[in-house]
Design brief:
Layout: H1 3-56, H2 63-76, H3 80-108, H4 112-116, H5 123-136, H6 142-149, H7 153-177, H8 181-207, H9 221-255, H10 258-283, H11 286-295, H12 299-335, H13 344-359, H14 361-369, H15 379-397, H16 402-429, H17 435-470, H18 474-496, H19 498-502
Length: 510
C-alpha cells in the first residue's frame, strides 16, 4: 500500500471509530434526558415508529454499497465521464426511491393504531415527521458514495458527527425549554437535510472541475450488470440480517417472558454499541481494499491483505472480548443494579457470539470491496432459516430457554455465515483454497477461548476478594478488574503469538 493510501486508511479508521463512539455517548445522554422529561410512553412510541420506518429502508435494497463498488474502477483510472454517468444514475434512482418510500409510508398511516396497539395523542403527526426525515435522507445522499469510494470516508464521518452533535444539543435544549416531542423530531429532519447539503456542497466544490462533460455518456453495460447483481446480493443480506437480528427478542418474548427481554436488551445495548464502533472501523477500510483490488496484479496480494486485516480484527477481538466477559456483569451492577443481572452463561454466550461476529468483519469487508454480494446471496437466507429452526428446536424439544436461543445464533453465525463468507471471498475473490483460512481461524478461536477462560477465573476471584475487602464499591472493582484483565491479556497474547512477534510480522507494513 502506498504512503498516500495508507495515510487515508489511517484517517478513515480513526475518524470513523471516534465519531461512532462519541455519537453513542451523545445518544446515551440524550436518551436519558428524553426518558426523564417525556417519559417511557413517548420513548416507546419513538422506538416503535422508528422501527416501522427502518423496515422501509429495505426499499433501498443495498444500492448504495453496490454503487460504491461500481465507482472503484473508473475513479482509479480517472474515467470522470463514467463517474459522472454513474452519479447521475444513482441520483435518479434515489429520487425514485424517495417517492416510493413516501408513498408506502403514507399508505401505512391508516394502520398506525394497529401498530401502536393503542391510540397515542398526535401519533400520526409524529409519524409523518419521522416519515419526512426518511424521505429527506434520500435527497442528495448519493454524494456520500463518491467520497466513500474515493477513500474520503473521514469527511463523511466528520460531517455526520458535526450535524449529530448540533442536532443533539438543540434537541436537549428543546426538551428542557419546550418539553415538545414534535419540535424534537423537526430538529432531526433539519439536521438530516443540513448534513446532506453540507456534503453536497463539498462534493460540488471538489469534483465539479472533473465533471465538465456536457454529453451524457451511458454507463457501460458491464457496470450495470455488476450493479444489478450486487443489489440482489446486498438486498438478500439485509433481509437475512433483519430476520436474524430481530428473531432473538421475539422468541424470548414468545417462549420466555417480556421481563427477560428487558434484561437481555440491557446487555445487548452495550455489546451492540461496541460492535458498531468496531464495524465502523473495519468498514472504513473497505474503499481502500476495493481500490487496491482494482489495481492489484496478483490474487495473492488480495489474500495477503485479507490475512493482515483478519489478524488486526483478531487482535482487537482478543482484548475487547476479555473486557466484555470480565467487566459486563460488574458494569450492569454499577449502572442499574444486581437485580438486572442475567445468569453467567448468558454473558459467556453473548461474548462468544460477539467474538464470531467481529471476526466475520474481514470477510464482510472483502465481499463489499470485491463486489461479491451476489455470490453470497443464499447465505443470509440460510442463516435466517437455520437460526429460527435451531431456536425452536432448543426451545420446544430441549427446553433450554434463553440458552437455546443464544446457542442457535452462535451455531448459525459460526457454521453457516462464517463458513459461507470465507468460501465466497477465497473462491471468487482470490481463486484459491479456503483451507488456509480455516486453519488460521480455528487457531484464533482457540487463542481467544484460552484467554477468556483465564480472564473468567481471574475476575471471579478478584471480584469476590475486592467485595470482601472494600464492600460493593463496583466502580473501584470495575477499575481494578480493567487493569488486571488488560495485563493478563497482554501476557497471554504475547505468549500465544510469540513466533509472529519475533518475526516482526505483526508490524509488517500494510
Amino acid at each position: 500500500m502506498d504512503s498516500k493510501r495508507k495515510h487515508y486508511a489511517i484517517i478513515n479508521v480513526g475518524t470513523s471509530g471516534l465519531s461512532t463512539a462519541f455519537k453513542f455517548i451523545l445518544g446515551f445522554l440524550s436518551r436519558t434526558i428524553f426518558i426523564h422529561i417525556l417519559g417511557s410512553e413517548i420513548l416507546g412510541l419513538n422506538g416503535l415508529l422508528t422501527s416501522t420506518l427502518t423496515t422501509l429502508s429495505l426499499a433501498e435494497m443495498g444500492i448504495g454499497s453496490a454503487v460504491v463498488y461500481s465507482l472503484y474502477e473508473p475513479l482509479a483510472n480517472k474515467r470522470w465521464t463514467i463517474v459522472q454517468s454513474i452519479m447521475r444514475l444513482y441520483r435518479n434512482i434515489y429520487r425514485i426511491l424517495a417517492l416510493l418510500i413516501l408513498a408506502i409510508g403514507l399508505a401505512i398511516v391508516p394502520f398506525l393504531p394497529l401498530i401502536t396497539g393503542k391510540q397515542v395523542e398526535h401519533s400520526t403527526f409524529y409519524y409523518l415527521i419521522l416519515l419526512t426525515n426518511s424521505v429527506v435522507s434520500y435527497l442528495l445522499t448519493y454524494n456520500r458514495s463518491l467520497l466513500i469510494a474515493n477513500e474520503r470516508n473521514y469527511i463523511v464521518s466528520f460531517v455526520d458527527f458535526l450535524t449529530y452533535f448540533v442536532m443533539t444539543v438543540l434537541q436537549v435544549i428543546i426538551l428542557f425549554v419546550f418539553k415538545n416531542y414534535a419540535l424534537y423530531l423537526i430538529i432531526q429532519v433539519i439536521s438530516t437535510l443540513a448534513g446532506n447539503i453540507g456534503l453536497s456542497i463539498y462534493v460540488k466544490k471538489q469534483y465539479d472541475k472533473y465533471f465538465v462533460s456536457e454529453k451524457i455518456v451511458k454507463v457501460p453495460r458491464k457496470i450495470i450488470n455488476k450493479l444489478k447483481r450486487n443489489v440482489i446480493g446486498t438486498f438478500a443480506s439485509r433481509i437475512g440480517d433483519i430476520v436474524v437480528n430481530g428473531t432473538d427478542n421475539i422468541l424470548i418474548a414468545a417462549f420466555i417472558n417480556l421481563s427477560t427481554v428487558g434484561l437481555y436488551s440491557n446487555y445487548q445495548l452495550i455489546i451492540s454499541a461496541i460492535q458498531q464502533i468496531l464495524y465502523s472501523v473495519s468498514t472504513a477500510l473497505t474503499a481502500t481494499i476495493g481500490n487496491i483490488a482494482v489495481g492489484q496484479t496478483s490474487k495473492d496480494e488480495g489474500a495477503d491483505l485479507f490475512f493482515r486485516h483478519q489478524f488486526a480484527n483478531y487482535t482487537i477481538t482478543f482484548f475487547v472480548s476479555a473486557l466484555l466477559l470480565g467487566e459486563l456483569p460488574t458494569f450492569i451492577r454499577l449502572w442499574i443494579g444486581s437485580s438486572f443481572l442475567l445468569p453467567d452463561y448468558v454473558d459467556v454466550l453473548m461474548v462468544g457470539i460477539f467474538v464470531i461476529n467481529i471476526l466475520r468483519y474481514s470477510g464482510l469487508s472483502f465481499i463489499d470491496a470485491y463486489g461479491l454480494s451476489y455470490e453470497q446471496r443464499a447465505k443470509p437466507i440460510l442463516e435466517a432459516i437455520f437460526n429460527l429452526l435451531f431456536s425452536i428446536l432448543f426451545l420446544k424439544v430441549f427446553d433450554l430457554g434463553i440458552l437455546g436461543i443464544l446457542l442457535a445464533t452462535m451455531i448459525t453465525s459460526l457454521f453457516i455465515a462464517t463458513v459461507y463468507e470465507a468460501y465466497v471471498v477465497f473462491y471468487y475473490g482470490f481463486n484459491r483454497s479456503v483451507l488456509q483460512f480455516y486453519k488460521k481461524y480455528i487457531k484464533m478461536l482457540v487463542d481467544i477461548s484460552i484467554n477468556l477462560v483465564l480472564v473468567s477465573f481471574l475476575t471471579s476471584f478478584s471480584s469476590s476478594f475486592l467485595e470482601n475487602l472494600i464492600g460493593r464499591n463496583y466502580f473501584l472493582i470495575l477499575i481494578v478488574n480493567f487493569v488486571s484483565i488488560i495485563l493478563l491479556s497482554i501476557i497471554v497474547y504475547c505468549f500465544l503469538n510469540m513466533k509472529r512477534i519475533i518475526n516482526k510480522k505483526v508490524f509488517r507494513r500494510v
